[in-house]
Amino acid sequence: MRHQAPAAIAAAKDKGLQLATAESLTAGMIAATLAEVPGASAVLRGGVVSYSSDVKAEVLGVDAALLLSNGSVDPEVARQMAVGAQRVCGADAAVSATGVAGPEAHDGKSVGTVFIGWAIGDESGAKEHHFVGDRAQIREQSTNAAISQLTAILSKASS
User: Fold this and answer.
1) 3-class secondary structure for 22-86?
2) How far apart, in whole angstroms, are the C-alpha atoms of residue 23 and residue 15?
3) Whole-structure pTM over 0.85, yes or no?
4) Model confidence pLDDT, tens digit, residues 19-39
5) Which of 27, 69, 79, 100 could potentially form a cystine with 106 if both were Cys, beta carbons 3.0 to 4.6 Å apart?
6) What phi and psi, each to the nearest 5 degrees, are found at residue 154?
7) What b/e string do you get for 93-126 counting C-beta neighbours within 10 Å, with b at 16 or more?
């Protein structure tokens, strides 16, 4: 699925849009995968690795009360992470990932539960995924899902 990264970069270039990422369980894999594409520097502004809830709240602006009540593996947390990355990186569009890579459940969520957040312009949302595999496989699937989500929102954006 890494073939989605060139499509995301090409779509952002075609539409003149700047990109950002916010990553928890993927810890930079989404940004790194996008950066593997030649010419990514024209559109990839940066990313925030927000492994801890403190960084989600203090850097990305995720609602601290939401993190306390729902934990970090939550669709609204994913949405707010993407909006935060868009803001702090000065980007037009952003994608985020938060979830449980394993081996243990986290915040009452089972291993493989992942939320991919997105933001473009004033619109944002999140999508739930359930991946199967070991920790590395879940992180890889999460990265691929995030890049697919980014490609989808960029292809719908008006240029």
Assistant:
1) EECCCCCHHHHHHHCCCCHHHCEEEEEECCCHHHHHHCCCCCHHHHHHHCCCCHHHHHHHHHHHH
2) 24
3) yes
4) 999 999 999 999 999 999 999
5) 100
6) -70, -35
7) bbbbbbbbbbeeebeebebbbbbbbbbbeeebbb
